[in-house]
Specification:
This protein is mainly alpha-helical. It contains 8 helices and no strands. The longest helix is centred in the N-terminal third of the chain and has 18 residues. The N and C termini lie far apart (46 Å).
Length: 119
């Protein structure tokens, strides 16, 4: 990871945490990671995994581009906006999915839906 992107990310994460009143401990619990990892992100000592970046964007309701300032993500997000609109039911389902506490719960939910769709 380039130093400029890591610095941008650390600054943006700090800003979002302050704006939303979220502590390192609370954020670590939401991400299901240890608090020292958050400290390392904020001090430019480590960079989060892709899944952690996605969860951060969901928690703070920002795009991945806003969170990372990576130009390639901006291009992906522009392309994604060209998708058809979701129906109200799809929006509700997506919102429920995003509220699940972690990836294990999400996987279980998808597996359960797939099993029910086979019936």
């Amino acid at each position: 990871m380039e130093a400029q992107h890591q610095k941008y990310f650390a600054r943006k994460l700090s800003e979002l945490m302050a704006k939303n009143g979220i502590t390192q401990v609370v954020l670590a619990k939401k991400l299901n990671i240890k608090q020292p990892a958050i400290s390392q992100f904020l001090n430019e000592k480590a960079y989060p995994s892709t899944m952690t970046l996605i969860r951060l964007s969901e928690i703070f309701r920002v795009t991945l581009y806003e969170l990372t300032n990576l130009e390639t993500l901006k291009n992906i997000e522009v392309a994604a906006k060209k998708r058809p609109e979701l129906t109200p039911d799809q929006e509700k389902l997506l919102a429920l999915y995003n509220e699940l506490p972690d990836d294990d719960w999400r996987k279980k939910a998808i597996d359960e839906l797939l099993l029910k769709s086979k019936d």
